[in-house]
Every structure is written in structure tokens, then in C-alpha cells.
Specification:
The protein has 266 residues and is an alpha+beta fold. It contains ten helices and eight strands.
């Protein structure tokens, strides 16, 4: 069993503009606006990089910045290792690369090529905050959030140092959308710390049904975007009570998360 704390949270999704407002919507799901995700421009990036950055980078940075703001840790950004996880990567960039390669000229834009790597979001973030700390980028289909949380928690506990987890997924354009439907943009970030924060105990358990959202609309979001597998944990964090959540893992196992009551946090 691994024990870490959550010091800061970021959130961006349909009707969930940020953690500050999204927390209230998670506690009272009927109050959540039925509006698409709005991805803000990352002011942290220079203007040239903002123009080059795709929606995956922008949404990931927005969530990461929220988590650091929530933890009052912006000054420490350059000293924090990261784990970025995404099932989709940047689907639009992938689509446009495929179109370019299918054209007679087969000319690929250098910017498109740069943004095609799976660690593009991590690269933009570490450059923006001038960080040389380790970074891991993962893709594990629908289990990307659960595996990313496990990876970040293991690193945090082993190094006894903070780790920033960022999970983000985006819709694919057609025709890929028909094969892999993702309904909207969803991003979340958790700043994990070895001591302090809201305490989590994580353990790999036998495969079984993941925790569902009681609200049907939130459950549709959970199933419709891989990174939104975080929603039951985020709801438990918003509620403040002790809770146990099972998060989807790879075939054969799931991630069991015990969350202490906020009242027990030092």
C-alpha cells in the first residue's frame, strides 16, 4: 500500500471550468451547466508557443496551473517532477499529419511533427516553468488516469518529493471519432506530496467494477472521456468525507484508493 497526500487539484471539463467552480457542481450535479469544455489560452507560455500549442497542451497546462494555485505552490513549479497521462494524445494533430502524408506532396509541418510526440504537453510545461525535474508520459487506453495516478504516487513515495499528475483527453475528428468516440475535452491535475495534504492510500487490487458516479450525466462524462475516470475520486475530494474509490486499471487489476476525511488533514 502506498500513502501520499493531495495538496492541489485542477479540473477542466464540460460544465467544469475549474476546480473552484467545478467542486460545487460535483457536490450538486444538477447545478452543473450543460456546456462544452472551454480551453483557455495558457498565459504561462510565450505568445509564439501559445500559437503553436494544440488543445491538449493548453488544457493540460490549464489544469496543472490550477493544481499549483490550489496548493499555493507556483513558486515551486520548477522543482516538481511530473507524470502526464493521456489516452488520446493530440487527436487533431494526428489527423492533420495523416492528411499531409496522404497528399501527393507528403509535406509535414515541423510544428505538426513537434506536437506529434506523446510527451509534447510535458515538454511545453517543463520549458514554460524552466524545470529540469524528471517527467514521465503515459498512454494506457481507458486506464490512463488510473495507471498515471499509480505511477505518480509510487514516484512521490519513493523519492519523498512532490509529483504533479496531469491527465487529459480530447475528441478525435472523423473518421477516427467513429472508431474511438471521446465526447469532449477533459483534464485534471493532482499535486501529490509525501507528507501533508489530503491523505490517499493506494493499493493494486483484483479486477472488478470501477466506482460509478451516482448522477447519470456525470456517469456519461466518466465513460465518455478516459481522463474523466477521475470523476469519482474528484467527487470524493469535493465532499470531504472519508471514501473508497476503485479506478479502472489494466486487464486483471484495478486501483483501490482510500481517501481520508478532510477533517483529519493536519
Amino acid at each position: 500500500m502506498i500513502t501520499v497526500g493531495i495538496a492541489g487539484i485542477g479540473l477542466l471539463g464540460p460544465g467544469l471550468a475549474d476546480w473552484a467552480t467545478g467542486r460545487a457542481a460535483l457536490l450538486a450535479p444538477a447545478s452543473r451547466p450543460r456546456t462544452p469544455s472551454v480551453v483557455p489560452a495558457p498565459q504561462r507560455l510565450p505568445a509564439t508557443e501559445r500559437r503553436r500549442a494544440g488543445a491538449l497542451v493548453r488544457a493540460s497546462i490549464a489544469a496543472a496551473d490550477q493544481a499549483l494555485d490550489d496548493a499555493d505552490a507556483q513558486a515551486d513549479a520548477a522543482a516538481i517532477a511530473t507524470v502526464f497521462t493521456s489516452s488520446t494524445g493530440d487527436p487533431l494533430n494526428c489527423h492533420l499529419l495523416c492528411e499531409a502524408l496522404a497528399a501527393p506532396e507528403r509535406i509535414v509541418s515541423p510544428t505538426r511533427f513537434t506536437n506529434s510526440v506523446h510527451n509534447a504537453a510535458a515538454g511545453y510545461w517543463h520549458i514554460a516553468v524552466a524545470s529540469r525535474r524528471p517527467s514521465t508520459s503515459l498512454a494506457v487506453h481507458d486506464a490512463s488516469f488510473g495507471v498515471g495516478l499509480l505511477e505518480a504516487a509510487v514516484q512521490c513515495a519513493a523519492a519523498q518529493a512532490p509529483v504533479l499528475l496531469v491527465a487529459c483527453d480530447l475528441p478525435y475528428p472523423e473518421p477516427l471519432h467513429a472508431l474511438r468516440p471521446v465526447i469532449d475535452v477533459f483534464a485534471t491535475a493532482l499535486l501529490l506530496v509525501p507528507a501533508g495534504g489530503r491523505r490517499l492510500r493506494l493499493q493494486v487490487g483484483a479486477d472488478g467494477d470501477s466506482t460509478r458516479c451516482a448522477d447519470a450525466a456525470l456517469e456519461a462524462l466518466r465513460l465518455g472521456m478516459p481522463a474523466a475516470r477521475a470523476l469519482p475520486l474528484l467527487q470524493a475530494l469535493a465532499a470531504g468525507a472519508a471514501a473508497t474509490v476503485r479506478i479502472e486499471g489494466q486487464p486483471g487489476w484495478a486501483l483501490d484508493v482510500e481517501l481520508e476525511s478532510a477533517a483529519t488533514t493536519p
